[in-house]
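Quick one: structure tokens for this chain, please?
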Amino acid sequence: MAKATGGDYLRRLMQRGSLHAVLILLCIIWIYPIVWMVSASFKTNAQMWNNSAGLIPDPLQLDNYVRAWTTSNFSIYFLNTVIFAVSVVALIVFLGSTSGYVLGRFKFPGKRLIMVLFIGTTVVPRATTIIPLFQLADMLGLLNNRIGYTLAYTSKTLIIAILLFIGFYIGVPREMEDSGAIDGCNFWQQFRHIMLPLAKPIIGTVTILNTIGAWKAFMIPLVFTFSRPNLRTLGVGMYAFVGEFSSDWAAMAAAASISIVPMMVVFLLFQRYFIEGLAGAVKG
């Protein structure tokens, strides 16, 4: 095998440097809107438009955060969103893991039809189902309360979680369950003590995806809280800063900056499981 010459090494180094430069440029383009939003949260509304390209506010306007948190009831929207996101994630993890386990590990009549229906629902635009969901919630008395929009949102995002769990459980060796059966474990014990701990990467993935989705949800919380504005979430609460004749853009930027902090914390806590879960799902 021929040894690499100095020219080959220099060529590879230049190619690698070009690739890094392109990646750095893409990262800057991707992160710039977030940096601009945080910068705008410390400006006045006039500064935002007169010096929109500048990223260093002069002087810092901390009143935007106070106004966003108190005057615009953002603290209430924040609490509603926490309750909403936690409830959605808990329901999806429980229902997704149990349904995925049954569909992924057992054979029964009608399983293929269920799988076809599940996959078919993923291509249906969400906006087309909002009216049937609204009518069903109205019939069941679930409008204008947390239970209603939590169940409505869960029904729209549960299928992807089930498919992720199915893909994971299919790849688990059958010997894992056989060993549990030999030790006297029943169906629930096999799932709880053997299969569920193995699914931590998928649980992390589902948790991150659905926490982010629930945190920024707009359509369902808006439609299901027409008569109860005090139950609205952050995504809907942002409209409190938009008036008929004027809008408080600086306070909106401050509110948006507050809202992204919990998502960053969740991602940092579950990022290892998120990456492992995606790799396991693709492999499965």
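The radius of gyration is 24 Å.
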